[in-house]
Amino acid sequence: MSEKTLPCADHGEYSMVEHLERQGVSRREFMTACSVMTATMTLPALLRSGGAEAAETAAGKAAAGAAGAGETTAWSSCVVNCGSRCPLKVVVKDGQVIRIEPENTGVDSCGTPHVRACVRGRSMRLRLYSEERLKTPMKRVGARGEGKFERISWDEAFDTIAAALKKTIDQYGNDAIYYQYGSGTYQLVAGRAPNFRLLNLLGGYLDQYGTYSSAQIREAMPYTYGSGGNGSYMTEVANAKLYLSFGNSPLNTRQSGGGKGYEWQCAKDAGGVRTILVDPMYTDSMLGKEDEWVPIRPGTDAALCEGIAYVLITENKVDQAFLDTYCVGYDEKTLPAGAPPKSDYKNYILGHGADKLAKTPAWASQITGVPVSTIVRLAHLIGDTKPLFVSQGYGVQRQANGEQSVRAIAMLPILTGNIGLPGTNTGAREGDVELGAVGLPVGKNSVKAVLPFFLWTDAIARGTEMTAKRDGIRGVDKLKAPIKFMWNYAGNVLANQHSDLNRTDAILRDEKKCEFVLVIENQMTPSARYADILLPDLMAQENFDYAADGYASGTGSFLVALQQAVKPRYEEKSSYEICRGIAKRFGLEEKFTEGRTQEQWVEWCYNETRKKNPELPDFAQFQKQGIAKMYGKGKANIALEGFRKDPVKNKLGTPSGKIEIYSARLAKIAAEWELPPGDVISPLPQYVTTWESHLDAKAAKYPLQLYGLHGHGRTHSTYHNVAWLRELHPDAVLINPVDAEKRKLKTGDAVRVFNDRGTVLLPARVTPRIMPGVVAIPQGAWYKPNGKGVDEGGCINTLTSHRPSPLAKANPQHTNLVDVAKA
Ligand SMILES: Nc1nc2c(c(=O)[nH]1)N[C@H]1C(S)=C(S)[C@@H](COP(=O)(O)OP(=O)(O)OC[C@H]3O[C@@H](n4cnc5c(=O)[nH]c(N)nc54)[C@H](O)[C@@H]3O)O[C@H]1N2
Ligand SMILES: Nc1nc2c(c(=O)[nH]1)N[C@H]1C(S)=C(S)[C@@H](COP(=O)(O)OP(=O)(O)OC[C@H]3O[C@@H](n4cnc5c(=O)[nH]c(N)nc54)[C@H](O)[C@@H]3O)O[C@H]1N2
Ligand code: SF4
Ligand SMILES: [Mo]
């Protein structure tokens, strides 16, 4: 791997931290040393300088079993929702975790790497021993949301929860029990699964579809391709000549030492692919690793793609044979029967469609902020370079018009025929190998109704008004009951990760609306404050379980043993034991356990996984080695390869079996659904100017576009209460010097970021890395309202809107207008 592409900040820094700490160097000295090194040296340079080399050796010694005197090592993993599940070696002395080491069973080059944990996983010890750790069951004593609790026994907790469940079921039915989105832990037996298993035994619960992560891309892409949001593996980038990526930042969001960020760098080094990143921010995935950064106004990717399409079409750079054979609706001759005349893509782009507007580079430029010359140059590159690998992150689709943008981006590989061939991709995010790891069986949910994940505050406030055609309710035409019982496991959505938190707070506080809130957590988070009963869960390092590679691991498949490194210190219980306790109150304990202990279930699940992957070692051996890596399983995956080879034999999942540029299904939905003014669903992907974009009337009052980014210092809100990380990655609002100048702001100034929904207090960070007219806040800081609508915690969701996107009814959390002023 070349020096150019391995940033100290991601992979090297923390082995230095830990090494120096072990040598007795203080945090303060470390921080200073590291920031100097990060600024000036790359990891290979560090390695040569000797410091990190020593750290590597120390880690190597521990792996070989030569830990210090009295130290033992257990295997665990960082199972938060970052998608990587990096294995961790938990070093214990005198019953206490004294440090966390990364796994090192791989090699230091591309191939079968060490799956090195990032700074977050390596600071796990601080989360384990944080002041906010929940110790005992508690019941609320103050008003809901006030955060006043009293210790109770497990018996009282189980009795209270069982009584509330019975009351809800008797009075409103199981439809009134909602299982809240919560992505805090991805362990396979004692994570979320026992909660589902219990609720299903009780007659079911209101489930959700979609996620805060990727709801829009997963909903929209199947209209084009017949199936979901994932494309070719990142390893395929090695075979491409041009990598064009929209809002994808693997070195921010796929940080693990063995995941997609790593694969990206290896692939780039192997093939020397030209790299162009389209993003409002100059991200850490750039910093010299890109050939070109194209700054773009948030929410306008579709316009850029249409401007590029205009050049491709008018300069004859489209692959007409591919479009004729594999696609529906590029031009009039492949439009489906029943589509209006001139409703095809070519006519739309050239200005002969219903809107009579040519999507010229000049038109695209005034929307996107990308210069005309850049649009034309990009179009020439895209038209002339093969293979072309187009991908996108999820930031693009976390916008009010995200469903349109994701399909518009897919048009670039489609127009140029860069589909199903080596070095190409569909325009979706890169895919992952899946081992099909088996978790605790959860049974069947008897409640038919399913809610779009983003509309739970509506389902509390106006549940019975919500319908299929207006609110995207599935399984039934209309919700039977509002949400009356909130089951919140391992999530901080209630008061942190959902939108418009001041509104959300008012809805949750009203005990007549949602009558019972159960929170099962291990930290006293903002959401935990809203619990009626608050239960302390184990953390993975105190639990016994196993985990599989995540959705950010790319081709790197592995299983990790989660071993009990330390015993719980207080009265915490695993979710399996918690749910068993509640099941007992209903006489369902035997049905819940099927006669197995949690440990026996772990072994059972592992063995089921092994049946599908016979190359895995037996359970005893797995426990001994702690990690089972199975790299290289699907290295050759190219999205739609079979379809490209034989489109008749390997039809896509669309009604026509082809790529549907024009979707008759979307035309039908557009005609039938009830949409508020301004919401557009259309059979062709098309740029739509939305509410709270820079072209909206509201921009006169709030001239800055705001979005939240997934930064290094947290996984969402998890790891927020780790002081080391707050020091290393301080929260701030990123603002361009041009916008700062107008407001007389400099870095470090305390500022207010505000709109009609609320105000957030934060320091400013003035930087040209964010484009003019746009500001960004790392998402996930803990919401801390001061009672006057001002959030002193710096949580972006004080400012975000709860209005859903048109098709997926999903979170447009990156679409916001604000202003910034000195506090
Ligand atoms: N404005 C804005 N908002 C966003 C986003 C954005 O980009 N912008 N991103 C969205 C996205 S993509 C997502 S996925 C969501 C994430 O939203 P959440 O799913 O709420 O994720 P976290 O904030 O990480 O909260 C996880 C919680 O689980 C707890 N936890 C961790 N381990 C365990 C365990 O073993 N047991 C139990 N019981 N609890 C545990 C942690 O303490 C933490 O409080 O946020 C969304 N919100
Ligand atoms: N470090 C870290 N990694 C994480 C997480 C985390 O919290 N921290 N969370 C994990 C989870 S659950 C998820 S879902 C993923 C999230 O992964 P993403 O959703 O891909 O991450 P974001 O940071 O929201 O956005 C990615 C990039 O899109 C850019 N962007 C925003 N709006 C637009 C737009 O309209 N157009 C274009 N072209 N670019 C835009 C942003 O500047 C950013 O660089 O990350 C995962 N990985
Ligand atoms: S936050 Fe993600 S990259 Fe970091 S250690 Fe955890 S799983 Fe690995
Ligand atoms: Mo996510």
From TrEMBL:
Annotated Gene Ontology cellular components are:
outer membrane-bounded periplasmic space; plasma membrane
Keywords of the record? 4Fe-4S, Cell membrane, Iron, Iron-sulfur, Membrane, Metal-binding, Molybdenum, Oxidoreductase, Signal
Report the residue ranges that make up the 4Fe-4S Mo/W bis-MGD-type domain in this protein.
Answer: 71-132
Q: Which GO terms describe its molecular function?
A: 4 iron, 4 sulfur cluster binding; dimethyl sulfoxide reductase activity; electron transfer activity; molybdenum ion binding; molybdopterin cofactor binding
Give the matching NCBIfam families: dmsA_ynfE
Choose any GO biological process term that the UniProt entry carries and state it. Answer: anaerobic respiration
This one is known as: Anaerobic dimethyl sulfoxide reductase subunit A
Q: Which InterPro entries match?
A: Anaer_DMSO_reductase, Asp_de-COase-like_dom_sf, MoPterin_dinucl-bd_dom, Mopterin_OxRdtase, Mopterin_OxRdtase_4Fe-4S_dom, MopterinOxRdtase_cofactor_BS, Prok_Mopterin_Oxidored, TAT_signal
This protein's record includes keyword Ion transport: no
**Coiled-coil regions, chain positions:** none
Give the PROSITE patterns listed for this entry. Answer: 4FE4S_MOW_BIS_MGD, MOLYBDOPTERIN_PROK_1, TAT
Highest taxon above the source species: Bacteria
UniProt xrefs under Gene3D superfamilies? 2.40.40.20, 3.40.50.12440, 3.40.50.740, Dimethylsulfoxide Reductase, domain 2 (3.40.228.10)
Name the needed cofactors: [4Fe-4S] cluster; Mo-bis(molybdopterin guanine dinucleotide)
Matching entries from Pfam families are given as:
Molybdop_Fe4S4, Molybdopterin, Molydop_binding
Membrane topology (UniProt): Peripheral membrane protein
Q: Where in the cell is it found?
A: Cell membrane
Family membership = Belongs to the prokaryotic molybdopterin-containing oxidoreductase family.
